[in-house]
Design a protein that fits this description.
UCP036436, membrane, single chain, transport, Nuc_sug_transpt, transmembrane helix, mainly alpha
Amino acid sequence: MEWTGYRIFLALLLVITGSINTLSTKWADRLTSEGLDGESTRFVHPFLQASTMFLGEIACLATYKLLYWYYSRRQPGSESIEKATAGNTNFNALLLFPPAMCDMISTSTMYIGLNLTYASSFQMLRGSVIIFVALLSMGFLDRKLRCVEWTGIVFILGGLSVVGMSDFTGSSSGPHKNQNSIITGDLLIIAAQIITAFQMVYEEKFVKDKDIPALMVVGYEGLWGFLVLGALLVPFYWIPANPPFSDNPRNVLEDTPDGLVQIYNNGLLLLSVIGTFVSIAFFNFAGVSVTKEMSATTRMVLDSVRTIVIWAVCLALKWQDFSYLQVIGFGLLLIGMCLYNNVLLEPAFKKLQRFMNRRAIARAGLGEGNDEDEEGGGTTRYSVFSN
């Protein structure tokens, strides 16, 4: 695969905006601001943050519309050729309602978990989605896993266990009050990956073959998610909830007016919310483009790089202390992901096979020369591995 300037730009955009998205969300969780009661409290509004994320996804739909208009104006018919806009636009938007609901539930749950645990653990634990996707694919897509994929899953399970252990031994200068809250956050993040896995399997079974432009898929899922979650914010205003799931004056599941007042009263908090909105839009665009320009495997590798960036920033900002267990856990997770996505063994085997081919050919040439010298021009054929 040739790394052109455009592909390098996409890779950097994916890593940078993906890292900003997680870090800006976590930054907001750590900030305090004056709310409706006049008291300065921590910003604990996961559902309001999830709504911001869906607004960022809606921006992808707006981007698609602008690109479609631009290409059609520039040259009629080019809108059906360009990668960003090509595809089937004649589909029922309700087809994307179920995955949008999965996205809404999983994102809200993950943001609650992120409030309770570390940003680095949040990013690493999201790797557990591979396990649930694999199991659900066997049940709903009649897929059979190869031995190397099962091996990858075993490594991922080991990595997740070690990351969980690191949270018991780690410490933080932030709002994590006790180990019970941290492990609750970890479990919520893993539980959210089950819902995310349902979303991925549904999209592969019902959406993939429709050839819908990826920006439209992201945009419509964001639209459905924002509409439903926006409506749910009303009953959430009246549902009681106690810490650590709530830290607003009324002790309810989501106090949207209080959250908006806190954002208004703290410029840094507003900046973090804007960072979440902008980064999720560019992150989705970069992810779609990387998958189209390169491959889904490349996107997985870049997502691992994003984990390293988030981890390094958290350590630099002293949001958490260094833990060697996280190093081991991340290593196991990375190996497992590479094995599952066929990044390690088969490519290495093919390289070894090509090396053996070259050696066999070289020996064949040397053998022919010896045979000619010894047998007066006779030739000997050697069998070699096929490339």
